[in-house]
User: What shape does this take?
Amino acid sequence: MTPTPTATLVARDWAEIQERMLVPLYEAVYDRLEVGPGDRLLGLDCGAGLALLLAAGRGAVATGVEADPARRALARERLLEVLAAPPGPQGPPRPYDALLAFSPAPAALAAALPAVRRGGAVVLADWGPAERCTVPSVLGGGPAPRDLDALVEGAGLRPDGSGRVFCPFGYADVDSAVRGLLSTGLYPGAGGPGGAACAAPFEPADSVLAEKELAEALHPFERPDGAVWLPNIFRYVIARVD
Assistant: This one.
């Protein structure tokens, strides 16, 4: 499947502008799990693969799963191993030590769990408390945070801790902020790596309207130098496969 020009542009905005906003979350999780040489990680909805690159930088062997062909192509440009779907019921030749599902959907989580070894870690993450997250309000309310503890229970996993991470979304200017936020797929009608609930990418007319609405919503968050600063808290939970 060949990505459309629109999908490719949105994917590049994600890779070049937005993806790095979640680095504090990735690093906090890797520190908590003590990710290092020899560890095998599987990342669901890995986007353009930045989380995989950070794990590889610690010596881990990281594989991604990304359904969107444009994002998958960008991840592969980074010489990463990225699959279109989780390994089948038979699993990989050697099970993974950890599964990273930073934007988990129950069906995708269930499909990937057989690839994780017994005792392996499963990490789920999503927005923190609404009063501590700026971005959902800017995006017109945005999706409600998933109940991560209920996901853990529903998947039959054993809870093994949780944490919160400060992930501010900072942009050089309003234009960069608009492009980055649209690439998340969280804005109504936008395409992006925001999970299975995301709609298709904007048609051209819709894109113009969305950009205008977002730019207006971002003005209260502009700093004197033109930069845009949107503070957020993300929550993650760690569970184990029994």
User: Anything to note?
Assistant: The first strand starts at residue 40 and ends at 44. Residues 189-205 have pLDDT under 50 and may be disordered. The CA atoms of residues 44 and 204 lie 30 Å apart. The first helix runs from residue 5 to 18.
